[in-house]
User: What shape does this take?
Amino acid sequence: MRKNHVRAKLKQGEASIGSWLTLPDTVSAHLMARTGFDWLTVELEHTPITMETAAASFAIIAACGVAPLARVPINSVENIKRVLDTGGWGIVVPMVNSRAEAEAVVNAARYTPIGKRSVGGQLHAANFDTDPATYYARANEEILVVVMAEHIEAVEAADDILSVPGIDAVFIGPNDLHNSMGLAPMFDSQEKQFVDAVEHIRATAKKHGVASGIHVLDAVSAKKRIDQGFQFIAVASESGMMLAKAREITSALGIGSGKQVAKY
Ligand code: 3PY
Ligand code: MG
Assistant: This one.
């Protein structure tokens, strides 16, 4: 069975850098998987991507030696099961704001004796280059479980959430976190409440042996977060990169409306 290099890196205290896939397109997933990122997260929360496209993307991404992850639409057994059973190497779960919600994530993502994940399926084993029996025996050591801290409630409950056994990483969603504080959604800011919350999540995660991560927009911000001790770093998305480059060209040529159509 293949090793999940992202989980291994995080356990060793190293940084792992990935990006987000927001387009319902296996061709762009394939091309992105050849750019050097450690992992790619198929975005099922805020996009029209279907499970069929996601499963095909997981296969292509894994075949390129990159870890296929997915952000599920909402914390539910069904969402987590379908991503993992169709070949995702890990899940990113949005809006995990309490210990009970964190326990529900682990129960859905880990097989017994850690959790209550149901056995079944073929694609999970295929994507790890193994057979189902080996997958069932080893999946708990390879599947990456990431909970999102993106609400002030999660910051306040950080100790309760991050002490739940079975969580590998906590990933800060800066836009929703700002929003929950009554601030405009942003990837970064110097707002004291936001800066303190980010540091609180990082320090609490470290205390519990959990890797911390955050979504950023560019390489400079990724390096800044790594220097601060963050390990699971998402840089922008394929559509964000495409549109940023397109706008750079159209604005250099003095054409186009100047509208920003993708945030990340
Ligand atoms: C946020 O910023 O809220 C996110 O979910 C980023 O992934
Ligand atoms: Mg969010």
Notes: The mean pLDDT is 97. The radius of gyration is 18 Å.
